[in-house]
Amino acid sequence: MAAGYVPGGQAGVNGRPARGAGLAFGIVTCLFFAWGFITALNDPLVAAVKGIFTLSRLEAQLVAFAFFLAYGLISFPAAGLITRLRPMGAILCALAMMVAGCLTMLLAANVEIFPLVLVGLFILASGITILQVAANPLVAALGDPKLSHFRLTLSQTFNSFATFLAPILGAHLFLKGLEVQEGTVVTNLVRAKALGGIDTAYLMLCGLLVALAVFMFLCRGVVNAALPPPKADRVGPAGLLREALASRWALFGAFTMFLYVGAEVAIGTQMTAFLNDPAIWGRSDAAFSVPLLGQVMASDGILGVSVEEAGKAVGFYWGGAMVGRAIGSLLLSRFRAEQLLAIFASLAALACVYVACVGGVSSGFVALAIGLFNSIMFPVIFTLTLARSDAREEAISGLLCTAIVGGAFVPLLVGQVSEWTSYHAALAVPAVCYLLICFFALRAGQAARSGS
């Protein structure tokens, strides 16, 4: 076993957690906050570039495509990197790459070139991909293997807190005065303000990532000490890929992860324009009467929800995931993970069907609630796949993180369907994804009972 991981998430000797595993777990969890914040900035960014560069709905989704394409191309090279540098060495390389991505975004905002925005996002996401491949199995390994679902869900809760904050800040910086409905003309002044907001956001991120890299460098000894020594049987990316593809459960889990990330990202990146649409909240003030939601959206006094106000509301989509993961962390310590996954996926599918078929003001609230049901899906799909596959963890992690490329392709499909129909009818696509996730959960439960 390479990179210091032990099968089944066991760290230490005889399945007991290694000394210092709790502190190491806390240190690694900081990374979940960082990549969650950066990823969720894509939601207001999609709406911003649609207005700034006068893009179609499908073209605006190229933001998600460029970002999540990195997972499909970088995950297995990342797994190979981890086998050579160990997790903390790979994490430091990832943070350096993310700084380079932020600097590219700063250049793109100043020269106003949309393809350069896509390049910057790809570089930034490549670094995040390395973090994901390294950190997810690392968290599962740092402690009692029976609580791996709990630990990864708890770390994802901090990730969700970041995704709650990022759309609110991004909407304030990117979307002030901007409109994205078809036929709207964006003035040079509004465009300049939006580009300045992008510049400010990624400059701040650059500084924070440098600080995080210094922190991780200083703490690398604590994390490395909590892991067993690396084994000698190092395997390159090609070998890891062959091993992962030979495992039926690794492939099943990867397909499910593709669907989950695709559905979640498609809903999130469309949410700003969806809520701003006249068929949802564009001509209603109902959202402003809801405690906390109304205060965060901060009405401008004009009837209906503007694109900036809608962008701030997207934080509650991701905030639902934060609340759900906090609750899910407790539920997963008491109930079977596959049962909870089946329930949450079924509820998400029902919510999507309601939005697609009913529309109107109520569907805006239902759409935001889907984030609550998304909450436990990533960590549970990840750990169920780890538990049922006989491939090494680096191989499984590489394949599952490759499957995050679903966030590149499903949003493109949803964007095209929304062009043909409407924003709310397009949620029929995520509904199908969630039903298939429910099928995975049921099969995982059957496999556990049969011992296969």
From TrEMBL:
SUPFAM superfamilies noted in UniProt: MFS general substrate transporter (SSF103473)
Protein's UniProt keywords contain Iron-sulfur: no
Keywords, sorted A to Z: Cell membrane, Membrane, Transmembrane, Transmembrane helix
A Pfam family: MFS_1
Recorded superkingdom: Bacteria
A cellular component annotation (GO) from this entry: plasma membrane
Primary subcellular site in the record, as a coarse category: membrane
GO molecular function: transmembrane transporter activity
Membrane topology: Multi-pass membrane protein
Matching Gene3D superfamilies: MFS general substrate transporter like domains
Location within or outside the cell: Cell inner membrane
Name of the molecule in the record: MFS transporter
Source organism: Sphingobium nicotianae
